[in-house]
Amino acid sequence: MWRSGLRQRVKELQMILPPPSFLPPSPSPTHHLSLTKKPLLGLANASPCSAVTMSTTTNNLDEIFKQKRVLRSKVRKSLKAIDPSLRSQEDDAIQSLVSEAAWFKSSQRLCAYITCYALREVDTSKLLSQILQNTTKDGSAQNAKKLYVPRVEDKNSHMRMLNISSMDDLIANSMDILEPAPVDQHGNAREDGMCST
């Protein structure tokens, strides 16, 4: 039953949202791909090599950003309109689908976000708890999974995916969104999932 409700919600969103237009339109006078001969590194004595340059007018980028703002506004309105009990059921259904998936069960390292309820994101709390339990009933860590969550590093929204072992590893950032502290309780830098092997 919940799956049919979820499918219906997806269909409704598809009806109100325009088709994605993330890619620029086909070549036109305002958007073109051109091949030019340029010297390598701009050195006058270097032999020329082919370089591909792409020029996109500011108008095209402005239009893409405008469409993105409109799309986000429509999605926010749709999310606000969802009944809280229905939202909770759908969040549970999504988490169940993920936790029952073979890829999830076999994964040893996972990346996830910490839900920000103000942004009306899908609740991930049950999944996070499941990942962080890490031990079987006999106390062994044979089924351990590593969890990496995002930390915004600067005003340009550069992120790192840092390992946490407990929800206590999280602190609120300036926007009141939970993210991992840069160091663990022992003062050691956290493992960055983007740099790990």
**Helix content, binned percent:** 25-40%
> What value does the average pLDDT take?
76
Low-confidence stretches: 20-55, 135-139
Q: What string, H for helix and E for strand, traces the elements in order?
A: HEEHHHEHEEEE
* Total DSSP helices: 5
Strand order of the largest sheet: 3-4-5
State the distance separating the first and last CA atoms. Answer: 42 Å
Beta-strand segment tally: 7
Shape: globular
How would you classify the quaternary structure?
single chain
Question: Based on helices, strands and strand pairing, what is the structural class?
Answer: alpha+beta
Q: What would you report as the Rg, rounded to the nearest angstrom?
A: 23 Å
Most strands sheet: 3 strands, mixed
**What is the percentage of strand-forming residues?**
15-25%
Describe the fold and architecture:
The protein is of the alpha+beta class and 197 residues long. The protein is 36% helix and 20% strand. The strands form three sheets. Strands 3-4-5 form a three-stranded mixed sheet, with helices on one face. A two-stranded antiparallel ribbon has the order 1-2. Mean pLDDT is 76; it is low at 20-55 and 135-139.
Briefly say what this structure is:
This protein is α+β, with helices and mostly antiparallel strands. It has helices spanning 2-16, 58-81, 84-100, 102-106, 125-133; strands spanning 31-39, 48-56, 109-111, 146-152, 159-164, 170-172, 178-180.
Which SSEs are present, and which pair or pack?
Elements lengths: L1 H15 L14 E9 L8 E9 L1 H24 L2 H17 L1 H5 L2 E3 L13 H9 L12 E7 L6 E6 L5 E3 L5 E3 L17
Parallel strand pairs: 3-4
Antiparallel strand pairs: 1-2, 4-5, 6-7
